[in-house]
Amino acid sequence: MPQLYHHPLDPQSRFVRLALAEYGVEPELIEEKVFERRRDFLLLDPAGETPVLVTDHDFTVPGATVIAEYLDESLGETLGENRLLPETPEARVEVRRLVNWFAQKFYGEVSNWLVTEKVYKRFMPAEAGGGAPDMDVVRAARANIRYHLRYIGYLTAQRNWLAGDRLSYADLAAAAHISVADFLGDVPWDEDETAKLWYARVKSRKSFRALLADRVPGISPPPVYADLDF
Question: Model's pTM, two decimal places?
Fold first, then answer.
């Protein structure tokens, strides 16, 4: 059985979990607190970041986008016309552009700030930066998420899915990052109905069920988080 080193509220890990579920792969989930800098984990990935996939053949694949590419190369054809990375170079460019948008821009402006301040700092020792959240950072993330929602709404108003006619890695990446903010109650769903409808479609997929069941000690998501008809 493959192993996935992850954190339940790490959006990059959630992207990979969604991708694996779409491929029908059920890994052993190993929760990793990256701020602990465990030696054995650093031996797997010197960068010390989740997610890290260890295959059945003990081959280590680190990083969300690297794992996504590896899965497409090794399993993509099994999905046929539902392949998560399209066949044509032009279509692949658009999917990769949007995956990078959420893995880099959204992560840097929204999800990393929210998770670090509202989740990780709860469990980090004071000498490592733990403690109360910096609410200025949280407020900045809440402000930034608004224009990302508008961009999602803009794209899905013109396309069936984020990157085109079919579900792709772009949708999984975006939904993974949005889901973390949703778990923490920081998505202003009343501001863009088109983005909300898109998210409801992704959220209703079978691959999303495990994410909706995630819980973290001391943090309860709002009722809307697991509601498919929110």
Answer: 0.96
